[in-house]
Amino acid sequence: MAKVATVGVVGRTNAGKSTLVNALVGEKVSIVSPVEQTTRNTVRGIVSDARGQLVLLDTPGLHKAEGELGRLLNRMARRSAAGVDVVCVVFDAGDEPRLEDVGWMQRVARERPEKVLFVLNKADRAPFYEQMFRDAWEEAKSGAPDGEGGAAPEPRWVKCIASTPGGAKDVMDALFDFAEEGELLFDEDTVTDYPRRLAIADSIREKYLAKLHQELPHELGVLVKRIDESERGGRRTWQIAVEILVNRASQKPIVIGRGAETVKYVRKCAEREVGELFGVKAEMELWVKVEPGWMKNKRLLAEMGYLGELV
């Protein structure tokens, strides 16, 4: 019988959750960027090996919420920690504990999930603040109210370097230690069940974040309107119509770029990545649209998958 576990991968924004999930899966299933709040949806990554299967829920990072979208992302992150077999909290231990880190510790101490893994990521950094995180946990634990069932089991601590080959092996081993015997939840060759429209939108947004850096990180929305499938010369082709949403007219030239340089660069990179991901020839049309207040528009947020199970 195989060992199986569902794992909620949580933590503050930019702690390395998506990098860790990609490292565990062995393929890119979640976008990665140094810009905070890169992950906006809960992405499911699936790990299968001789031991069994881990179903990983990569979640939006907990952060100080600003606006409707920010509040929705925080709610999504918190809900993703509920109803899983293992709560895996990722900390950027190359930095001192922040308020959001302490908040996750306090939640664990208060709610007492049975199986918890604390991952101290970026172990190659110097200084490395392992002791400060352990001290913060002791303080969070001492401040938690007594529960009916007594104290929860102590979290298991693991150090890792998620960005390097083999740097997440100890995390993988710890998660399988927590897993219990059961039936596989997905076929062994499945690495994600993330909807393709959302995966395409994420790829485009990742390319914009890499190109624009901090110029427009949180006011850029990507909406995949249509995917037309055909076959040309024996090869599957997807013609993909995409709207790029910005809040203000002044942002439109930034997203398009001089001589359309930026939008052409994003389209070329995203077409290549989506083609490789789905085994098709991807042809994209990107239209930049000014949509004031799109981050408060629940219809648009639902189309982008940001409302998820919240509606």
Which labels suit this protein?
GMP Synthetase, Chain A, domain 3, three-stranded mixed beta sheet, alpha/beta, 24% strand, 9 helices, Rossmann fold, 34% helix, 311 residues, single chain, globular
Number of domains: 2
Percent of residues in beta strands: 15-25%
Instruction: Tell me the name of the CATH homologous superfamily of the largest domain.
Output: P-loop containing nucleotide triphosphate hydrolases
Structural class: alpha/beta
CATH A-level architecture of the largest domain:
3-Layer(aba) Sandwich
**Large-scale geometry:** globular
Number of helices in the DSSP assignment:
9
Helix content: 25-40%
Could you give the distance between the termini? Answer: 37 Å
What is the succession of H and E elements?
Answer: EHEEHEHEHEHEHEEHHEH
Short description:
With 311 residues, this protein is an alpha/beta fold. The chain is 34% helix and 24% strand.
Model description:
This protein is of the alpha/beta class. It is 34% helix and 24% strand. The chain has nine helices and ten strands.
Architecture blueprint of SSEs:
Blueprint: E1 3-10, H1 17-25, E2 43-49, E3 52-58, H2 67-80, E4 86-92, H3 99-111, E5 116-121, H4 130-142, E6 156-159, H5 169-178, E7 180-181, H6 196-212, E8 221-232, E9 235-246, H7 252-256, H8 261-278, E10 281-290, H9 298-303
Parallel strand pairs: 1-3, 1-4, 4-5, 5-6, 9-10
Antiparallel strand pairs: 1-7, 2-3, 8-9
